[in-house]
Amino acid sequence: MPEGAAEYGEPEEGSGYRTIHDLADDERPRERLLRHGPGALGDAELIAIIAGAGTRGENAIDLARGLLERHGGLGGLLRADAKALRQARGLGPARAARLAAAVEIARRLPRAGREADARPRFLGPEDVFTHLRWHFQNRAREELHVFALDSGARLLGEPVVLRGSIHSVDFRQADVFRDAILLEATSIVVAHNHPSGRPDPSRRDIAMSRDLAATGKKLDVALNDHVIVAGDAFTSMRRAGLLD
Length: 244
Description:
CATH architecture of the largest domain: 3-Layer(aba) Sandwich
Helix content: 40-55%
Number of domains: 2
Number of strands: 5
Shape: elongated
CATH superfamily of the largest domain: Cytidine Deaminase, domain 2
Structural class: alpha+beta
Radius of gyration: 27 Å
Strand order of the largest sheet: 2-1-3-4-5
CATH class of the largest domain: Alpha Beta
Strand content: 5-15%
CATH topology of the largest domain: Cytidine Deaminase, domain 2
Distance between the termini: 59 Å
Number of helices: 9
Largest sheet: 5 strands, mixed
């Protein structure tokens, strides 16, 4: 932090202006965000949090207001490059870099939204079969695939793949649910292949599915289905009435 600057800025001696610390708790941007959420803050307050500090004679909110005025609001700020931000009075290289990074994230959000819409959805066992059918072709060993899903049944992250032997896949339940919990999934779908070419579930498959469903209930991550894929056929444990 530059010499003479404290977090959110220090006053010049005798200036009479207020620092962030002079404000009541519910008026300070960071405290307001934590208490009420980011939607309760104005543009200048949000930028003040990113900037982190003001300068002598200008607190972080004043600095942020100045940035917005010079660039014509948020729209203009989104068009500003890192060099222009670096030249803004009071920012300095570190804070200019933070603000430039935040601006770039804002620019990329529309693309991220389009990518999210392109994520596969698993609304039924047919979707799982279509997704995995060609992957499982000519596989000599069993694999268990775990798909973590959001509330709209869209895939979150990459599926977890647990590989086994010709006849089975041994795993810990923690391996099945770990990514789903980290991704805050509301449900999972699991699927595995039968290299034998027959999609009929074994007793072990049924017992394993019921154990996963019971664990999922405790973790608040529902097991939507367990799909067995074998060649050009599949079996849905849910549809077959084999899941509670």
